[in-house]
Amino acid sequence: MSTLTRLLPLLLLLIALAIFAFIAYAIYTIANDVKTQTEKKMEKKHVVVTKDGMRVGVKEVGREGYVDRTQSVLVKAWNLSSWTRGVWRQEGEKGDGAAKGQSGQRGTSAANAKKVK
Length: 117
Known about the structure:
Elements: H1 2-44, E1 47-49, E2 54-56, H2 63-80, H3 82-94, H4 97-100, H5 109-116
Antiparallel strand pairs: 1-2
């Protein structure tokens, strides 16, 4: 029994090292799998990471396409702004507001009529 008691700490140490090695190997394989999957996804988006740095592929956009997109964004912003809605509504309801000298007024004729009464 004395040899068994002498070898027991050694066996426990070897078992603990084996468990630690297994966990480290599992972490290593998972990290490599994540790395390869990430590289594949980044390559689809034209981003390549090398030892020298990161290289980004830029999709060529023609001048006409760029101008069309920019103009579209500006038109949407103009249409969604709150102050332009009143201006367009007044001109549409009253006809030519600039000729009557009322283009700068806010409010409608119904609101002005209530004030008079």
